[in-house]
């Protein structure tokens, strides 16, 4: 545990040591504002809820999370610090978890900084704050899943840009598998096998994020996101082991 | 402290390290000497647990590197060849991180950091970020990281590479001083470094250990080792060589120099020379022949000759086998 904390602390301070962290947070806040108020029709909905806010998170994260995570392992490899890290008296798993947790906390900080929107909606009306909490939990879990995938892709290559692109593609697939236009299309294509469409959609973050937005924190959805994280981080360990041999 | 048995590493079909064994005890400094691509770094990476060996065993302080990597790694300080460090951290931040991950905290940690900052002459740059440092400072920062926990075992891959002559000397002195209480391995392609620092040297070429011993022992293996030089006046080289060639103890002679009335002849011993045998015989002959002797001395082989002879002869052999094939 101590080692994980030490690794996470270093990683997190590395984020804030460069202006990139602040630029990222500003962009994140601007984009969430833009999507919520301009595209999502926050006011037009005329309801006291954050539906318009959470609706866009799967798409926002599609680019922002890979941008945060792409350097995690590719930089260690490129700078040669992987050799230092892996000869320190820690297990590879501690390093992987420590680095992941740091980036996840960073994303959490960005998410927490959207609190003015919660205050706004509470000021304007009388929203169900339980639903809002559910939305935040779901959003944070989804960010963790994207991040773990990025963790894996950044272990595969020394090149951050390649890690970014692969992550975006993988996360996009995880969105599209449950995106209504795609599922509707699939239902038309395979009208006889609704179970297939359901099966494909069950791998989508959209499917699992939906209930959270309604304020339902269902253990199945939590397990889905945690499984994506567990699987990706475990694969990261396998990749790191193979590049060291 | 360090025990390495029959270490092998293959990359694809290429054998980078081929059956290397050695032990290093506390108080010893083992130098790895070899040309680029010899397998020095690969060996060190296996000793420090960065990469697993294809075959063979590494144990450090009794901990097997495969069975108990964390236990073994606790005892080791490692300076990789490229001396990496996190570019976005300050020197102080980086050293704090290294100390913490080595289990130091509180006053002990600050003391350890102060100590390495002083040892590695980093006072002027502690608040500077690593990516703005010059190569020498960067190198010393990583060096400081490797000794912050005062490890029993120190593995350093080309620790003086890229330093200016003054820094080189300081680092060598530091290694020598630390070697009194630690088990140290370091690699280099600089020959004087081995002579200046090591208690033992291993010459590695194409993954194999081609020579192993104290710098003095390796020196003695050199071609010139034990040869006796004789400088005389007023006589021809051919006469001198004729008389010396006739001696039982002498295998052959060469003329090093022949200038106006002064000759310098070298007599090589047969087999392994016993101390002073050849020089005694040469001196006796010179006395009997009443030569006007200017100087007699025995050559101590130089390590770089040992080194180059071994690597060269191997190259010749592989060239030959290539031609045959
Ligand atoms: N990760 C690797 N993959 C493939 N070949 C490697 C790898 N690391 C080292 N080698 C090869 O192994 C040989 C030994 O390299 P190295 O140990 O770095 O030599 P040295 O440190 O003595 O210069 C070289 O021929 C090098 O090309
Ligand atoms: Mg090397």
Radius of gyration of chain B: 25 Å
In total, the number of domains of chain A comes to 1
Shape of chain B: elongated
End-to-end Cα distance of chain A: 27 Å
Q: Would you write up a description of this structure?
A:
Chain A is mainly alpha-helical. Chain A has one domain. In chain A, 80% of the residues lie in helices and 0% in strands. Chain A has 14 helices and no strands. The mean pLDDT of chain A is 90. Chain B has 325 residues and is α/β, with parallel strands linked by helices. Chain B folds into two domains: 218 residues, P-loop containing nucleotide triphosphate hydrolases (Rossmann fold, 3-Layer(aba) Sandwich), CATH 3.40.50; 71 residues, Ribosomal protein S6/Translation elongation factor EF1B (Alpha-Beta Plaits, 2-Layer Sandwich). Chain B is built from eleven helices and 14 strands. In chain B, the strands form three sheets. A six-stranded mixed sheet of chain B has the order 6-7-8-3-9-10, sandwiched between helices. In chain B, a hairpin with a 2-residue loop joins β12 and β13. The C terminus of chain B is likely disordered. At the A-B interface, α1 and α6 of A face α2 and α3 of B. The structure holds adenosine-5'-diphosphate and magnesium ion (MG). The site of adenosine-5'-diphosphate has 10 residues of chain B, from α1.
């Amino acid at each position: 545990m101590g080692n994980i904390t030490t690794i996470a602390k270093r990683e997190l301070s590395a984020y804030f040591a460069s202006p990139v962290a602040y630029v990222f947070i500003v962009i994140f806040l601007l984009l969430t504002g833009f999507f919520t108020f301009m595209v999502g029709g926050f006011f037009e909905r005329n309801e006291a809820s954050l539906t318009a806010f959470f609706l866009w998170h799967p798409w926002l994260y599609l680019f922002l999370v890979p941008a945060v995570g792409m350097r995690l392992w590719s930089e260690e490899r490129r700078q040669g610090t992987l050799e230092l890290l892996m000869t320190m008296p820690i297990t590879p798993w501690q390093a992987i978890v420590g680095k992941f947790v740091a980036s996840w906390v960073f994303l959490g900080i960005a998410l927490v900084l959207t609190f003015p929107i919660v205050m706004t909606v509470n000021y304007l009306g009388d929203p169900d704050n339980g639903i809002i909490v559910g939305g935040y939990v779901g959003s944070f879990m989804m960010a963790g899943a994207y991040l773990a995938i990025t963790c894996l892709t950044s272990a595969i290559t020394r090149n951050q840009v390649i890690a970014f692109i692969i992550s975006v593609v993988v996360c996009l697939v995880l969105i599209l598998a449950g995106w209504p236009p795609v599922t509707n299309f699939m239902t038309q294509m395979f009208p006889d096998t609704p179970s297939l469409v359901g099966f494909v959609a069950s791998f989508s973050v959209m499917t699992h994020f939906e209930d959270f937005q309604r304020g339902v924190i269902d253990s199945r959805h939590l397990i889905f996101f945690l499984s994506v994280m567990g699987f990706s981080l475990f694969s990261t360990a396998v990749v790191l082991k193979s590049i060291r041999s | 402290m360090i025990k390495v048995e029959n270490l092998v590493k293959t990359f694809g079909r290429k054998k980078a390290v081929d059956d290397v064994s050695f032990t290093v005890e506390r108080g010893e400094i083992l130098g790895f000497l070899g040309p680029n691509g010899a397998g020095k770094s690969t060996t060190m990476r296996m000793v420090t647990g960065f990469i697993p060996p294809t075959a063979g065993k590494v144990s450090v302080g009794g901990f097997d590197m495969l069975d108990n990597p964390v236990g073994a790694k606790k005892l080791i300080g490692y300076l990789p060849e490229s001396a990496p460090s996190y570019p976005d951290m300050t020197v102080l931040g980086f050293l704090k991180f290294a100390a913490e991950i080595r289990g130091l905290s509180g006053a002990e940690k600050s003391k350890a950091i102060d100590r390495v900052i002083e040892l590695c002459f980093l006072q002027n740059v502690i608040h500077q970020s690593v990516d703005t440092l010059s190569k020498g400072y960067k190198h010393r920062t990583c060096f400081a990281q490797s000794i912050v926990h005062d490890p029993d075992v120190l593995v350093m891959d080309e620790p003086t590479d890229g330093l200016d002559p003054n820094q080189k000397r300081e680092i060598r002195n530091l290694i020598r001083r630390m070697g009194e209480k630690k088990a140290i391995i370091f690699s280099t392609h600089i020959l004087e470094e081995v002579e200046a620092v090591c208690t033992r040297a291993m010459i590695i070429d194409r993954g194999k250990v081609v020579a192993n011993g104290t710098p003095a022992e390796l020196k003695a293996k050199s071609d010139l080792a034990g040869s006796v030089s004789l400088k005389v006046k007023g006589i021809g080289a051919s006469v001198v060589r004729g008389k010396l060639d006739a001696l039982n103890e002498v295998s052959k002679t060469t003329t090093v120099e022949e200038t106006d009335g002064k000759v310098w002849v070298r007599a090589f011993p047969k087999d392994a020379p016993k101390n002073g045998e050849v020089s005694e015989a040469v001196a006796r002959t010179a006395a009997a022949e009443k030569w006007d002797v200017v100087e007699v001395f025995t050559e101590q082989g130089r390590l770089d000759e040992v080194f180059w002879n071994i690597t060269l002869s191997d190259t010749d052999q592989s060239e030959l086998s290539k031609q045959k094939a």
